[in-house]
Design brief:
The chain is an alpha/beta fold. The chain has one domain (about 1-245): 3-Layer(aba) Sandwich (Rossmann fold). It is about 45% helix and about 10% strand. Helix 6 (about 95-105) crosses helix 8 (about 150-170) and helix 7 (about 115-130) packs across helix 8. The N and C termini lie far apart (about 45 Å).
């Protein structure tokens, strides 16, 4: 959007708080943004790069201009490594993007998930349902068939993404949020948001959300071809994902 590109050339009018949530899909990035925004400090902006992908040539300049348009507000959005790796429209490596954002005063929050099986299964189920986020009044009971070849490839890809993410962030100041340790149990939400606000430099406030986990069932109840999935995990040495006590 040309307007935002041009807006980036205008000097900032004030020093508002700017936050970038960086992480893969199905890691809790939307939940985290929702919780942060529930404090009243921010408005949810979501995945700006994905939303405006066809018209972005320079992601840093675009985000700079977009945020300066809302110069009276604090600003938050989240981005994913594979959005930045899309060479079809961006000419910047993820590390260069993150470095530039940090230099311009953005606070970077890196969110990740330990259980890549759950992450990959969550993605497949979201695609089948065509619903990616749920409110508290949604009841989910249907079991789903998982494409095991896709599952295997997805876990391998997620492993590589995580390696790339941590390599790109290792020299940059950032806050790490782990889905299983910080967000899976809703009783930990306030403690997590307190950490986030401390990191950003804002006074602590109460946080809440209507979002819920897409399923609280065990995988054997959630997946109709569960034994096929187990075979794939055994073959790759990933059985520990099934035994994850965080989801017990």
């Amino acid at each position: 959007m040309l307007y935002f590109q041009l807006r980036s050339l205008i000097p900032p009018r004030n020093k508002n708080c700017k936050v970038l949530i960086y992480g893969q899909g199905r890691t809790g990035s939307t939940l985290l943004e929702n919780l942060i925004c529930s404090t009243g400090y921010f408005k949810e902006r979501g995945e700006l790069i994905r939303h405006y992908r066809p018209i972005i040539s320079d992601p840093v300049r675009f985000i700079r201009g977009y945020s300066r348009h809302y110069y009276k507000e604090n600003f938050i959005f989240h981005a994913k490594i594979y959005q930045l790796k899309d060479r079809g429209f961006l000419m910047m490596k993820p590390k260069d993007f993150l470095t530039a954002m940090e230099k311009e005063g953005w606070k970077i929050i890196f969110i990740y998930r330990n259980n890549l099986l759950r992450q990959a299964v969550s993605k497949q189920i979201a695609i089948q349902r065509n619903i990616y986020h749920h409110k508290k009044d949604v009841i989910l009971n249907k079991p789903f068939k998982i494409d095991t070849e896709m599952l295997e490839n997805e876990i391998l890809l997620r492993q590589q993404f995580y390696k790339d993410e941590t390599d790109d962030l290792k020299d940059l100041p950032h806050l790490e949020i782990n889905y299983e340790d910080d967000l899976l149990d809703s009783s930990l939400h306030q403690k997590t948001i307190n950490r986030v606000l401390d990191f950003i430099g804002l006074p602590r406030r109460e946080a809440s959300t209507l979002l819920q986990r897409t399923s609280k069932k065990g995988l054997s109840d959630l997946i109709s071809n569960y034994e096929e999935v187990v075979d794939v995990l055994d073959k790759n040495g990933w059985s520990y994902f099934i035994e994850d006590k965080a989801y017990a």
